[in-house]
Amino acid sequence: MQFHGLITQFPKEIKLLITVFVITLSIGFFTGVNFIRITSTFKSNGIESNYLGNEEDENVEVMQFKKSEKEILTLIHNHILSMSIIFLLLGGILSLTSMNKTLKKVLMFEPFVSIILTFGGIYVLWSGVFWFKYVVMLSGLAMVLSFIFSIIFILKETIFFIKKV
User: Hey, CA dihedral for 11, 15, 20, 22, is it positive or negative?
Assistant: First the structure.
C-alpha cells in the first residue's frame, strides 16, 4: 500500500481534523517546552539543579532539592509513555505526506531515540553521572526540532490542500 502523499487526497474535513489536532498538540507540546525553560532556563546547570537540587549554592533565588527516586521514576515513566504516543501519532500522520522520503524517515524515527536518550539521560544524571546533562540537552533539542519540522511539513500539506479540494 502506498502512503506517500496520501494526505493530499483526504477529504477536506479529515485534513481539517488533522490540522486542528496538530495545532492543539503543538500548544500542549510547547507549553511543556515553556515549563522546561522556566525550570532549567535551558542551561546545563539548570537541568542539573532541577533534578539534583541546588541547596548547597547560597546564591540561588529559588532553592531546589534532589528529586526522590519515586519522583524521578514517575517523571520518566510518564514522559516516555506520553511522548511515545505523541510521536507515534505524529509519525503516522507524517508518513502520509509527500515530503522527501529520507527526511520523512529521520523525522519519524529520531524522536524515539531522543525520548530514550533524554529521559534515560535524566535518570543517569540523577544517578550521579553529571556530564549526562549535555546528552539530555542535545537529545531534548533534537526532539523539539523533530517536532517542529514534522508539524511544519504536516500543516503545509493539510492547510494548502484544504483549499484545493
Answer: positive
Select from 25, 52, 28 the least CA-distant residue to 127.
52
Q: Is residue 35 part of a domain?
A: yes
**C-alpha dist (Å) from residue 139 to 11, 18, 61, 74, 134:** 36, 27, 28, 20, 8
Q: Where are the alpha helices (DSSP H) in 3-54?
A: 12-40, 44-52
Domain residues for 22? 6-164
Q: How far apart are the first and last CA of the chain?
A: 23
Q: What is the mean pLDDT of residues 128-140?
A: 97
Does a structural domain hold residue 42?
Answer: yes
The model carries a pTM of 0.92
